[in-house]
Amino acid sequence: MTYAGGPPGDERAFETIGVAAPADEAEGKARFGLLIFRASTLDWFQLRQLDNRRALFSYDETGALSSRRWVNP
Fold first, then answer.
1. Is the dihedral of CA 2, 19, 6, 8 positive or negative?
2. Euclidean distance between CA atoms 70 and 28, whole angstroms
3. Which pLDDT score, from 0 to 100, does residue 38 have?
4. Average pLDDT for residues 20-42, to the nearest whole number?
5. Which of 67, 73, 66, 27 has its CA nearest to residue 48?
6. 24-59 burial, b if ≥16 CB within 10 A, otherwise e?
């Protein structure tokens, strides 16, 4: 089973789907893994009080930044 909702940090959200939080650290580590990936595009968005900003970043096969541009949010 997986986490199914509720606000971040709400331990009661696990109770709604029948999964309790791990009792010790070793048990908790068994539920996590390492993910390694290489992104080809990053869509960056910043919420601001007066104006929002959005940019697109593209990367080549080696992971180097190949282009960047502002776009309309």
1. negative
2. 41
3. 85
4. 77
5. 73
6. eeeeeeeeeeeeeeeeeeeeeeeeeeeeeeeeeeeb
What share of the chain has pLDDT > 90, as a percent? 34
DSSP notation for 33-70: -------SEEEEEE--SS--EEEEEEE-TTS-EEEEEE
C-beta of residue 14 within 8 angstroms of C-beta of residue 20: yes
**pTM metric for this prediction:** 0.51
Beta bridge partners of 53: 46
Which residue in this structure is represented by tokens 């282009």? 67
Whole-number Cα distances in Å, 57 to 8, 43, 62: 28, 7, 14
On the CB side of 20, CA atoms within 13 Å amount to 4
